Amino acid sequence: MSIRAWPHWAILLILAGYLMAAVAYAIWTPAWQVPDEPAHYNYARYLAEHGRFPVLQAGDYPHAYLEEIKARRFPPDMSIDPIRYESHQPPLYYILAAGVYALFAGASLAVRLAAMRLLSVALGAGTIAIAYVLVRENFPGRPYLAWGTAAFTAFLPMHIAITAGVNNDALAELVLAAILLWLLRYLRRRPSRHAPMHSRDWFPLGLLLGLGLLTKTSVYIALPIAALVILWGEGRLAPERGRARSILLGWFISFGTALLMALPWYVRNILTYGWLDILGLGRHDAITVGQLRTAEWLAANGAASLVQRFIRTTFQSFWGQFGWMGVLLDSRLYTLLALLSALAAGGVIGWWVRLARRQTTLYAHEARALAVLGASALLTTLGYLWYNLQFVQHQGRYLFPALIPIGLAFAAGLYHVTSPAGARPASLLLAGGAAILIIRGFITHDPSLFWAALLAGLALVLALQGWRGSRRAQRVMLAAVYAGLWALDWLCLFAFIVPALAG
User: Is this structure's pTM higher than 0.90?
Assistant: First the structure.
């Protein structure tokens, strides 16, 4: 089925819901209350006002001043001018942001900041659209996965909060999503094994990779993925005699094009920061004095405390821990989100069990898509773990480059849990959990009646679904989950962010 034949009303509704919430976040979130926003803003402002890129140097990370201005919630008498520690970042986003800054140069600071935030919102909408197309193309017989992935990406509260700020995250996610879409289309639509790829066929991939190199280092995971996909695709599909040549040609054209695009920036960094620091990361590590190191935390608190904090804070800040990690949600909301996450994870496990038992089917093109998206998620996770081996940066937002595979897993898990095959075991587990809470309450004289009732209610709903197997009921349940996430977006903004951070 061609993409033009697909019904688009669902993705249009999702995009409309995202834009409503994201624009509200961009307007109502107090100034500078998105992580690192002042530093990103100062980069774009410097570029717009001076016509050249800033240089990261000693003093651009004023740790004591930054802690004070955050604690005082960025009062008007404290300038953000000294906060410039993002000046090493690749240039592409800041060229766009500087253009918006220049366009609104005569407006008030509030208007200019809102306009720059809306640039990120627009980029985020592009990522959602690509997520939908990517999943719909590669899982054409499972449209619920495309809608669920797009809705999860659109309505995750913390993702909206970050996307509605001045930073290069939204552009990085957009470029990475576009690269993954191209790679999966290549695997699906490559010419037959009797028709070799032409040199010109690789230039679009090279262009996208080059844009990634000029956007953010989180996109660099696309390089090994692209190399492996070309090796896989040409090794599987190219004529046997010219297979090695096809692989080398794909690597040479795509990576060569990307390197040529990024080379001027790398040369500039070599001249600025030295031969061994083409990304400016060495200079960044050298000037961020005062940032808590993992070794220091381990020495003071031990490994068990570090692991516990890492898991708890990563989970909370993936869903919603706002401002500069200082605005937490009510603990009951985190418990509900943990329950929802557990249901989705259980659904994924249940689906894999059915697949292993050959009770369901996974087509070859779907397996290839899962392999590529899984590699993307794995490399993003490894990068997050590596960063946290050096600094205490337990921020779930660093996993957002993997939001498409995470959203796909979430959508697949919920679909399986709400299907008759998954609803039956899930209802038994939930009923068992409710029984445990009731028994525990009698023993400890501390009943958790609300949670026991919630688990029992969910168990009853899923038991009925497992018995009746209603498609309409399943659609209602799935729609209710994503509508609930959208409602949570508004709750987070007006019940937590604005009251806690407004001056």
Answer: yes
